[in-house]
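Record type: monomer structure entry
Structure origin: computed from sequence
Chain ID: A
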Amino acid sequence: MSVKVGMFDWVEASDSLSPGQVYEHKLQLAEAADQAGFHAYFLAEHQGTPLSIDGSPSVLLAAMSQRTQRLRIGALTFCLPWYSAYRLYNEVCMLDHLSGGRLELGVGRGVSPIESLIFGMQSIEQSRERYREALEVFFEACRSRTLSFQGKHYAYRDVELHAKPVQSPWPPLWFPSSNRESIEFTARHGYHTAFLGKAADAKAHFARYRELWEQHRNDPGRHNAHVARPFLAKTQHLVIAEDGAEAERLGLEAYRVWASHIHHLTRKLGRPDVHKTEPFAPDSAQPLIVGTPAAATEKVQAMLEATGANYLLCIFSFGDLAPEHAMRSLDLFSREVLPRL
């Protein structure tokens, strides 16, 4: 099975680093990933939580575009209901031009209803409506010289458009998913996807995706028709060191902090955890791999076989893991694990 390898990053708040130092660390990781031949670096978008201080992915992605040459860059995802649809279109065009056509475009409604309240979203249905309408505005703007659109949430009349994306008709689209209800839309349109859930459920999810994609791959009007074959991605926390015991110690400490971040908002409101975050449990939503390069290779290969993923999204920087340890994991992975995949 041919596997592409990229990186995913929440861009978490840190007790030991200033925001500026966090951002610089991510830029250095992007430079290293570029030199190592990774396919892409993806950023999350979250608001009002230590899980992410990446409140505007476009800003950090623009900086990454100037520090890299081949690495593709993107957000997983831009949360469309939180944006002015017209302004989002222009930001996407700018990023695609600044990167020389290296943008990957993840779109979604925003996974957290708590965060969506910041932007006035009172229900999941409302955010879903705004997401779908904003996406239609984006497609219409890409097709037109002037934007005219009348919807429930957005209205534009003869608005001038002076830029188009470098990639035609638009950058490759991603839509992460974790439930069967979303598979039909995602697969029918050929979106790249990242599965958000336990590894045991991923294989059936991806098998259903492939079945639906084959059925609809020649349908007219598909959103991602310009992409020959979709990526089916699985995220993976990784801490790699020459000493396996050190990798485990560092990984468990960082994972504990990351877990506190991902549960921050629900616990703040006294709600139950949405995800199971046991680092080595088989039913964990985000399991942890630690060890030497040889051990990591074996565990990563087993994960890929178990899930059926054709895209590995490495998470090297998470929790309070020191920048030098995240960089070491990336270096050892690229030199000793990646060639064996």
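Annotation 1: The first strand starts at residue 4 and ends at 9.
Annotation 2: The longest helix spans residues 124-143.
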